[in-house]
UniProtKB/TrEMBL annotation:
It comes from the Bacteria. One of its GO terms (molecular function) is isomerase activity. Keywords: Chaperone, Cytoplasm, Isomerase, Rotamase. Gene3D superfamilies: 3.10.50.40. The keyword Transmembrane helix does not apply. Its EC number is 5.2.1.8. This is Peptidyl-prolyl cis-trans isomerase. PANTHER family: FKBP-TYPE PEPTIDYL-PROLYL CIS-TRANS ISOMERASE SLYD. InterPro entries: PPIase_dom_sf, PPIase_FKBP_dom. It catalyses: [protein]-peptidylproline (omega=180) = [protein]-peptidylproline (omega=0). Residues 5-84 form the PPIase FKBP-type domain. The keyword Chaperone applies. PROSITE patterns: FKBP_PPIASE (PS50059).
């Protein structure tokens, strides 16, 4: 079984509850990550931690273990003049806010009304239960 601290090499396909594919390694290189490092969503990490090389597994990860539950508290109103590069922002399009510390936060403007933007800071997959078909291809020290 894959142990924490080891590098896992996986192929995967991620789908939403309606069957829509939201991410996949199909046609690209497998994903490599250090198990337990916190670089991927918790539920995916835990699933891979219990797998052996060559094993395939399908897991459904509840939203709270993926990108969290959707929260109305993460939807804010902001005057357009306070948003950098506001002229480039389109309603419904995902963009990133960058903090003074250099952290990036995905956000989506859901409405612009009289110079005020409604900005949704929830992750695009917040509130979604995610199903992954995972194959552990290899592991490295």
């Amino acid at each position: 079984m894959t142990c924490y601290g080891r590098t896992a090499v996986v192929n995967y396909r991620g789908t939403l509850s309606d069957g829509t594919v939201f991410d996949s390694t199909e046609g690209i290189e497998p994903l490599e990550f250090v198990v337990g490092s916190g670089t991927i969503i918790h539920g995916f990490d835990e699933a891979v931690a219990g797998m052996s090389v060559g094993e395939r597994r399908t897991v459904t990860i509840p939203s709270r273990e993926a990108y969290g539950d959707y929260s109305e508290e993460r939807v804010e109103k902001s005057p357009m003049y306070a948003i950098p590069n506001a002229k480039d922002i389109k309603v419904g399009k995902l963009f990133y806010f960058i903090t003074d510390e250099g952290l990036r936060f995905p956000a989506k403007v859901t409405e612009i009304n009289e110079g005020v933007a409604t900005v949704d800071f929830n992750h695009p997959l917040a509130g979604e239960d995610l199903t992954f078909e995972i194959e552990l291809v290899a592991e490295k020290d």
